[in-house]
TrEMBL record:
Coiled-coil stretches noted in the UniProt entry, renumbered to this chain: none
PANTHER family cross-referenced by the UniProt entry: ALPHA-METHYLACYL-COA RACEMASE (PTHR48228:SF5), SUCCINYL-COA--D-CITRAMALATE COA-TRANSFERASE (PTHR48228)
Protein name: CaiB/BaiF CoA-transferase family protein
SUPFAM superfamilies xrefs: CoA-transferase family III (CaiB/BaiF) (SSF89796)
Region annotation (Disordered) ranges: 330-361
Top-rank taxon, per record: Bacteria
């Protein structure tokens, strides 16, 4: 819990995996008091820390038996005293547990109830299992990623789970929270990864509708179809990322790559001469193979050529640009991304410490005014790590 722009906002997170915890982490990074409701089975006797699950950083954890009547009542009482509740179960699960939207809003009409799913709350697939790769597949986004003639390439689970899921849940929750300040009423936010990922592709759909994009992968300007928007291998097996789209940036790229028109050398094809793009790509590839990645990085950074070295996750944490801006933080000898975005007055911050499941059960009950703390702990409805 920090002093960021969401200081004073309390969020209840029903423990899950993937996009839900990340959304709650983002709210915690921004200063919200996030209380994660873990299952008693997640409590590890004798554990001293929450491990390396960084999506649980900056939170407090209470372990509650959601299947018990007393545990259900604890969650409803937590909802009474909170601004937001987040859950990522399949549709209908929280309703069966007695902690669904109607149950919680009856206790707290101003509550924003955020629901994170892959397929959404309604529809033929709503109750089906799934993961990121399947959700983005049905939106068209997965089809569009990859090289000409090759299969679709999986963009980790960043596109679906976290961009199409977590970020849309956060936008939805904060929008509903803002609206509740004037209406005095809460509401349910249905954040589906399919919806969010489809929405992310609006720009590409516009280009497709305007005749500027082919419904094939690897043949367009932004999908490695253009030789000046691609990655190239260097002499040491590293790679450089090139995104020299605009003519002035493309000219700078060609100059720094050493391929400006010279006497005795064949001129490069025009930037937008598609018929000769294969020739251009070969020239670029050959040039990049003459130096190592780090040697090319010194050539191109800083410049307006729109070229950068492709770094590994570990390298990124130690790159001078990232260390200068504190893009990553270090806790207990391990790097993790720092909170984003940045604020001029109410800085987002985190201690980087993942919550230990059930580690703050007693403190949460006490802080929120429960008068039967010992009874709840003795009954097993709430478990303290």
């Amino acid at each position: 819990m920090g002093k960021g722009p969401l200081s004073g906002v309390r969020v209840i997170e029903l423990a899950g995996i993937g996009p839900g915890p990340f959304a709650a982490m983002l709210l915690a990074d921004l200063g919200a008091d996030v209380i994660r409701v873990d299952r008693p089975s997640a409590v590890r006797p004798g554990a001293a820390s929450g491990g390396a699950d960084f999506s649980n950083r900056g939170k407090r954890s209470i372990a509650v038996d959601l299947k018990s009547e007393r545990g259900r009542e604890v969650v409803l009482r937590l909802a009474e005293k909170s601004d937001v509740l987040l859950e990522g179960f399949r549709p209908g699960v929280t309703e069966r547990l007695g902690i669904g939207p109607d149950d919680c809003l009856a206790r707290n009409p101003r509550l924003v109830y955020g629901r994170m799913t892959g397929w959404g709350q309604q529809g033929a697939l709503a109750r089906s299992a799934g993961h990121d790769i399947g959700y983005i597949a049905v939106t068209g986004a997965l089809h569009a990623i990859g090289r000409d003639g090759g299969p679709p390439q999986v963009p980790l689970n960043l596109l679906g789970d976290f961009a199409g899921g977590s970020m849309y849940l956060v936008v939805g929750v904060l929008s509903a929270l803002l609206e509740s300040k004037t209406s005095g009423q809460g509401q349910v936010v249905d954040a589906a990864i399919v919806d969010g990922t489809a929405h992310l592709s609006t720009f590409i759909h516009g280009m497709l509708a305007g005749g500027l994009w082919q419904d094939r992968r690897g043949v367009n300007m932004l999908d490695t179809g253009a030789p000046w928007y691609d990655v190239y291998e260097t002499a040491d097996g590293g790679h450089m990322a090139v995104g020299a789209i605009e003519p002035q940036f493309y000219a700078e790229f060609v100059r720094l790559l050493g391929l400006e028109d010279r006497d005795g050398e064949a001129a490069l094809p025009g930037q937008h001469d598609r018929e000769r793009w294969p020739e251009m790509r070969e020239r670029f590839a050959a040039a990049f193979k003459t130096r190592t990645r780090d040697e090319w990085a010194k050539v191109f950074l800083p410049s307006d050529a729109c070229v950068a070295p492709v770094l590994s996750l570990k390298e990124a944490a130690e790159h001078p640009y990232n260390t200068e801006r504190d893009v990553f933080l270090e806790h207990d000898g391990k790097h993790q991304p720092a909170p984003a975005p940045r604020f001029s007055r109410t800085a987002a911050r985190t201690d980087g410490v993942p919550a230990l499941p059930g580690g703050q059960s007693r403190d949460v009950l006490t802080d929120l005014g429960f008068d039967d703390v010992d009874g709840l702990l003795d009954s097993g409805a709430v478990v303290q790590s």
